[in-house]
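hey can u run this one w/ guanosine-5'-diphosphate bound, need the structure tokens asap thx
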Amino acid sequence: MFFDVPATVIVGAQWGDEGKGKIVDLLAQESDVVCRYQGGPNAGHTIIVDDETFKIRQVPSGVVSGKLSVIGAGCVVDPEVLLGELDQLTERGLEPNVVVSGNAHLIMPWHLAIDQASERRLGKLKIGTTRRGIGPAYADKASRIGIRIQDVLDAKILRQKIEVALAEKNIWLERVYDVEPFDLEAVASRYEGYAQRLRPYVGDVSLLVDRALRAGKDVLFEGGQGTLLDLDHGTYPFVTSSATVAANAATGIGIGPNRIDRIIGVAKAYVTRVGEGPFPTEIAGPDQERVRELGGEYGTVTGRERRCGWLDLVALRYAVRVNGITSLALTKLDVLSTFDRLPVCVRYRLRDGTETEDFPAHQSDFHAAEPVYEHLAGWRQPLDGDLPEAARAYVARVERELEVEISLVGTGADRKRVVALR
Ligand code: GDP
Ligand code: IMO
Ligand code: MG
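ok here u go:
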């Protein structure tokens, strides 16, 4: 037993892949419902329980512990991925208990095609997306031409919506991107097939979560991606297409913000980033490869090498601010166990020579920011058992700088490899 878990948001405090899945899985042991509130199969959450590894993209991580797993209106859903994941989990002996909001938007085949073609076309200016159709699906949602989960429940509406969408998308695909158009019949029959299987999972998520909270149930809200990938508050345009910050847990599910009790930020003891975009503390030289190998930093969804950097307290202080983080889980501290000295970025030096502890509001300042490092002592011993003095000092320094408590420290990938500090 780690925690009493009332309504708690688990949010990535860096550029994603902080170990949210593991922390959600851990806290899910003590909770009743786990919800995803944004994003889609761009997420890749790895959960390791004893000798079993689960890699989950679309379903909330609570599914591994058999908890009611809810996909909110703020999510985008690829039905092929969702149904495939449910099949796989069932084959492995789990009994997924999943409810999907009828208001969540569908990722359609043209979203994948446009994501891929648009990245190709951008060339050197590409975002480095996961190519899962996330941006194009959210763009259609905002343009009010998206297709929602509830649309598949009525074959006539579904066909009509696909027809309307294809009339435009096919021109775009052929003339702008020079790729194959989609056939109405083929897409409609494929999605009618998904409809049959999706039907039992569709429900009123807002009502369900409201009732759970009223009944005093413990509800977890699992963020996808991370703060610096947030559409409004991240390093735009090198971001994802949804609001990843904690406040969106309320919007993405359909409850009031006053229902949230706690916000746990998840941060690695260093930083990684997949895809393009500025990254002040990215490690130059062989230590980058060393961290990548020690941390197994390869993407869950795309297999891409993750870029690795030293802990960035300026960016983390920003994440505490924009999410309202009430405590932090610091994961993968074990990965740093072989270093003599650990650089930690405490300030940025800006173009005009001034130094700041606050995340720059202007992108050009951020792009040009130089990290100012302090070097903390390493511990050079494995983290099994109580944390050694130097590791405790590392944690304490982060707490002091951020003025937020670190309640959990990750010391290995398995569910059990965690030290609860409070
Ligand atoms: P998420 O997207 O935030 O859920 O994170 P990912 O699952 O994509 O990436 C985190 C990786 O680190 C996964 O392979 C986890 O199994 C692993 N992991 C999580 N916590 C720890 C930890 O404390 N130590 C180590 N060594 N690995 C961890
Ligand atoms: P989890 O939930 C890390 C990154 C992509 C790219 C940018 C936009 O596992 O932490 P998108 O496909 O969303 O349009 O890509 O965002 N990205 C992630 N990076 N972890 C993720 O999810 C990510 N989801 C998207 O690499 O830079
Ligand atoms: Mg991930």
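The chain has two domains: 7-91+205-420, 105-200. anyway lmk if its weird
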